[in-house]
Amino acid sequence: MTQFLALLLRNRLAAAGGIVLLVVVVLAVLTPVLPLANPDATDTANRFQPALSRAHLLGTDHLGRDLLSRLLWGTRLSLAVGFAAAIFAATLGAAIGIIAGYFGGRTDNLIMRGVDMLMAFPYILLALAIVAALGPGLGNALIAVAAVNIPFFARNIRGVTVGLAHKEFVDAARLSGLGHGRIILTEILPNVVPVIVIAMSTTIGWMILETAGLSFLGLGSQPPQADLGSMLGEARSALITNPLTSIVPGAMILVIVMGINLLGDGVRDALDPRLRSGALTRPMPATRVDRPTPPPAETEEGGAVLALSDLQTQFHVKKRVYKAVGGASLAVRPGECLGIIGESGSGKSVTALSVMGLVASPPGVITAGAARYDGQDLIGARYETLRRLRGDRIAYIFQDPLATLHPLYKVGDQLVEAIRCHRTVSKAEAWQRAIDLLKQVRIPNAESRASSFPHEMSGGMRQRVGIAMAMANDPDVIIADEPTTALDVTVQAQILSLLNDLRRERGLAIVFITHDFGVVGQLCDRIAVMYAGRIVEQGPTEAILTTPAHPYTRRLIACVPELGEGRRKLEAIPGLPPAVDRLDPGCAFAPRCEKARAACLTGEIALAGSGQRAVRCLFPETEIPSEQSA
Ligand code: ADP
Ligand code: MG
User: Fold this and answer.
1) 46: which DSSP letter?
2) Ligand 2 centroid vs 482 CA: distance in angstroms?
3) Which ligand 1 atom sits nearest the alpha carbon of residue 360?
4) Residue owning the nearest CA to atom 12 of ligand 1
5) Most CB atoms closer than 10 Å: which of 276, 281, 315, 319?
6) What is the pLDDT of residue 578?
7) Helix, strand, or coil here: 128?
8) What's the CA gap between 152 and 209, in Å, rounded?
9) Which of 369, 365, 356 has the alpha carbon at shortest distance from 310?
10) Ligand number, closest to the Cα atom of 588
11) 372 by DSSP, 3-state: which?
């Protein structure tokens, strides 16, 4: 709620609209106690008095009635009718929409066709027809205005409800034995209330105008009772000779409707969670780079195709700075597989995405370091350069193949697109290549499978397609971000051996991200262990698995169950990884480490050791010789 208000007030226009509206509403509420003349007392001797005349602040109208008094009483009435109509229309419309959307099928059809029929008439004509049938009067005008707005609410709310009615949480409520009424009240309604409020806040202004329109035509409030519309209607004949009588109610209508609309837009923006998280701000084509210090001079990485040096990526969200990656240095050579391992949230994905500038900006910013592909620094490279390399020289495989494949295109076509985006080859050639790729990733019946849609394939098959797509342009480096996490163990083993074969056959360099120590042993030559955005240990897979040096690595390995090892107590690591916006100096793992001492919490702890094997710990489990011949 406070967040909502803060967002609303930050929107200057909405705040201005809200303040204007608040003043008008307070005046309207206070009208009965203000020292005003009787709004209906005529005094024909003092017709059309100018403003600021004696006893009449805004002058008088054609019957000598006090304009200020009539204006305030009229505003009060117009606001009341407008709000009442809006609430009436919203309640009824939402009820209709929820019922139609929730039950669907014939109920939906019947209700919505009725609503469509109402919507086929022009608003004001329909309102006129309803008032004509019911007879003039403010109450009937209210009913007419509410009635013509019901279809708008019904349509909106039905659309939202249809989307919700088949969500898992509604199914779960059904399975737990709740009746339709309870489900609608406790599951559906809370989810549509924001939509109702938004629809209301943007239509109240319109409803006040419509009511004023009916009153203007003499079908709403009846004399001598004043509302803004009837005041305008009565002043019409004196528009030229005494414009004041028209201007006063006209200006009030303008102020009210503008205030409501500005506030309504603000409410809509503040209530929409997607707008709040910045989904409508267009992300930049590549991650923003803001390196105050120039990247370190190129160091000899021993023939690495991809080398990160001290890469730092942060997320700047409002005043908070999340240091997702706080200085990662890695290198991978052709034909080599480097594993990056760490708990969820340790910064593995952000590291991987930073390489090609794929971290969304805003809020992502790369603040230091370099990522060199074949000696060329990719951080801060021109977008065209990055685009040429993306998917061509450096390709990605992501965790969820269903989310990365387009649901409406055949997988063959998607492969063709990936190929033709970097090569000028004919469609037929590309299709043939797509089939070859599918064969390479060991998809049976590749020819017919190329014409399948992603949803027609199993999870393992889809991930194979994902790998085929990454292989489409024969890249030098594949960055695989937890590619097997969503798969069962047998398929996982197949995918791992497939990646292994591909790298042996083609000299492919693989950066393999996982949180599973069981997986790295099968594929990776070297491992980098990541914690809170930093590499805490690095070395050959064998060495790390047998003699882990960092307490964190040891505890991670101890969490892996092993078959055939008999009963063994699996030790979970107590505590949680730290929040990366409040990193204390010293070792980030210290609060969860039983070996931590006071020294661990002061100052920077360097990654000590040779290039091959290194650990960032003051009290490692095993001593690492500081200069080991590689
Ligand atoms: P993982 O190691 O599981 O792949 P990530 O690299 O996805 O972890 O995330 C690293 C850290 O960055 C996490 O603490 C996460 O909360 C933070 N983070 C990721 N994306 C954003 C974002 N858009 N805004 C703020 N923080 C983010
Ligand atoms: Mg991740």
Assistant:
1) G
2) 7
3) 23
4) 324
5) 315
6) 80
7) helix
8) 16
9) 369
10) 1
11) strand
Average pLDDT over residues 607-627: 79
Domain range spanning residue 330? 306-542
Residue 349 lies in a domain: yes
Q: Count of domains in the chain?
A: 2
Render the burial of 67-86: b for 16+ CB within 10 Å, e for the rest: bbbbbbbbbbbbbebbbbbb
Which of ligand 1's atoms lies nearest the C-alpha of 577?
Answer: 14
Q: What is the pLDDT of residue 511?
A: 94
Which-ligand-closest: CA of 576? Answer: 1
* Residue ID of nearest Cα to ligand 1 atom 10: 347
CA-proximal residue: ligand 1, atom 17 (nearest): 324
Tell me what pLDDT residue 161 has. 94
CATH number at residue 460: 3.40.50.300
401, pLDDT greater than 80: no
The pLDDT value recorded for residue 629 is 42
Answer yes or no: do 146 and 7 share one domain. Answer: yes
| Distance from residue 350's CA to the centre of ligand 1 (Å) | 6
Dist. CA 575 → ligand 1 center (Å): 18
Tell me the ligand closest to 398's alpha carbon: 2
HSE of 218, CA atoms in CB hemisphere, 13 A: 3
Indicate the pLDDT class of residue 339, thresholds 50, 70 and 90: very high
Please tell me the distance from the alpha carbon of residue 601 to that of residue 586, in angstroms, as a whole number.
4
pLDDT in tens, 81-98: 999 999 999 999 999 999
Residue 237 lies in a domain: yes
**What is the tens place of the pLDDT at every residue in 499-508?**
888 888 888 9
pTM exceeds 0.85, yes or no: no
Residue 565 pLDDT > 80: no
State whether 116 and 241 are in the same domain: yes
Tell me if 580 CB under 6 Å of ligand 1.
yes
Q: Measured from the CB, is residue 353 less than 6 Å from ligand 1?
A: no
DSSP 207-240: HHHHHHHHHHTTSSS-TTS--HHHHHHHHGGGTT
Q: Which of 314, 318, 349 to mutate to test the pocket of ligand 1 (most atoms within 8 A of CB)?
A: 349
**Could you tell me what percent of the chain has a pLDDT over 90?**
36
Q: What is the pLDDT of residue 141?
A: 92
In the prediction, which pLDDT does 628 show?
Answer: 45
Ligand 1 centre from 325 Cα, in Å?
9
Within-domain flag for 81: yes
Please identify, among 542, 565, 600, the residue that sits at the C-terminal boundary of a domain.
542
| Interval between CA 315 and ligand 1 midpoint (Å) | 8
Tokens encoding 593: 């480490």
Q: What is the CATH number of the domain that holds 173?
A: 1.10.3720.10
pLDDT band at 290 (very low <50, low <70, confident <90, very high): confident
Residue 234 lies in a domain: yes
Query: Are residues 260 and 336 located together in one domain of the fold?
Result: no
* Domain co-membership, 434 together with 518: yes
Residues 341 and 223 in one domain: no
Same domain, 263 and 317: no
Mean of the pLDDT values across residues 210-226?
Answer: 88
Question: Which spans in 476-569 are helix H?
Answer: 489-506, 517-523, 541-546, 551-558
Ligand 1 close to Cβ of residue 74 (< 6 A): no
316 and 254 together in one domain = no
Q: Which residues place a Cβ less than 5 A from the ion ligand 2?
A: 349
> Which of ligand 1's atoms lies nearest the C-alpha of 580?
14
Q: Which of 542, 571, 599 is the last residue of a domain?
A: 542
Ligand nearest the Cα of residue 321 is 1
Among protein residues, the one with the nearest Cα to ligand 1's atom 1 is 345
pLDDT tens string 512-538: 999 888 788 888 999 999 998 889 999
Strand 509-514 vs strand 477-481: parallel, antiparallel, or unpaired?
A: parallel
